[in-house]
Design brief:
5-stranded mixed β-sheet, 5-stranded antiparallel β-sheet, 4% helix
Length: 339
């Protein structure tokens, strides 16, 4: 039996049992999807590609909100059950190290990860080109922007939830200045969340159709006794545009640039109407998970069709077994990632 090692008990994790009709994958959708619909708050047309975390006796979320002028920014959400959300209509008020206002020009696809006693927010921002923005908070009242970890062009950054060998670890996907038609996942480390280096290649696009164009990080890796469980996104190209699906892999616990198992099948692909139709059709884009170490339950939050937020479920033993049983590694997966 696979065990989740980091995060602790979460007895109030949202949950729905697996329907008998789900036979082709170990992940199933919440029957009440979407959990955040269109036009959720004044001035915001769509919320999607957002992250969730436990906080105090409830949950918080950092949300990608597309304003009615089309410019994305990050908003806060609050919930008692991680399903019904109260959303602040004001953008997160970022400040610099001196407490002065320091707002990004735009911000999208945030991740939210707690490391020790601090919550870190990562997002894509303008740093003379698309790059990674980074901020910290302990109380979700003061949000201090930190140094940009990487130069342009980069996206899809996500921290590991604990230090490994005394270092912070972050996944990212270096890119170009456009809607990148390629992309590999890389790993970087830092002693202090300021200086980043020792970059390692983690995984390239896969051989299978659903991840044949590019891949990118999704939710924060989940520490298990089999390794780091990673939900990531894979992209394929079709005659009608890109299709974004959710995949799964397991990384080595001490050297996460080494992929131990990588599922050749997608775990979730656009099939529901709210995933197939929207502002950008055919998108399932994972950004966060909640997990309970006692039961092994995992709740996955994902953006659907760049329009709404969806919720799906799995159980750690089932999903890890499925990834291992259907693993198909590429030549570069098992390398340490140095050339």
């Amino acid at each position: 039996m696979t065990k989740i090692l980091t995060g602790g008990p979460l007895p109030n994790i949202p949950w729905e049992d697996k329907p008998a009709s789900v036979v082709n994958a170990p992940v199933w959708r919440f029957s009440g999807n979407p959990v955040i619909d269109r036009n959720p708050v004044k001035g915001v047309a769509r919320i999607f590609n957002s992250a969730v975390a436990p906080f105090e006796d409830g949950f918080v979320a950092v949300l990608r909100g597309e304003q009615v002028n089309g410019i994305p920014h990050i908003y806060m959400g609050y919930s008692r059950d991680a399903i019904h959300w109260k959303i602040d209509e004001n953008k997160i008020p970022f400040v610099d190290e001196e407490g002065k206002p320091f707002m990004p020009g735009y911000a999208y696809d945030p991740r939210l990860v707690k490391v020790e006693d601090t919550y870190y927010i990562m997002w894509c921002t303008d740093f003379y080109g698309a790059a990674i923005g980074l901020a910290r908070t302990k109380d979700f009242k003061t949000f201090v922007r930190m140094e940009n970890p990487f130069i342009p062009f980069n996206r899809n950054a996500v921290l590991f939830p604990r230090k490994v060998n005394g270092k912070y670890l972050m996944l990212s996907r270096p890119s170009d200045s456009g809607h990148t038609p390629f992309g590999d996942i890389f790993l970087s480390e830092s002693p202090d969340m300021i200086y980043w280096g020792r970059h390692r290649h983690v995984m390239s696009r896969g051989l299978e159709w659903w991840q044949s164009l590019k891949v990118g990080g999704g939710a924060a890796p989940i520490e298990t006794d089999e390794g780091w469980l990673l939900f990531y996104h894979g992209v394929s190209g079709t005659c009608n545009g890109y299709v974004y699906s959710i995949g799964g892999a397991i990384l080595d616990i001490d050297q996460p640039s080494i992929v131990k198992y990588r599922c050749e099948n997608f775990l979730l692909t656009p099939e529901a109407p709210y995933e197939e139709r929207g502002f950008v059709a055919n998108v399932c884009f994972p950004c966060a998970t909640l997990q309970d170490t006692e039961t092994g339950r995992i709740a996955i939050y994902y953006g659907a069709a760049d329009s709404v937020v969806g919720l799906a479920f799995t159980e750690v033993n089932e999903v890890v077994s499925y990834i291992k049983d259907h693993s198909k590694l590429t030549d570069t997966d098992t390398e340490i990632g140095i050339r």
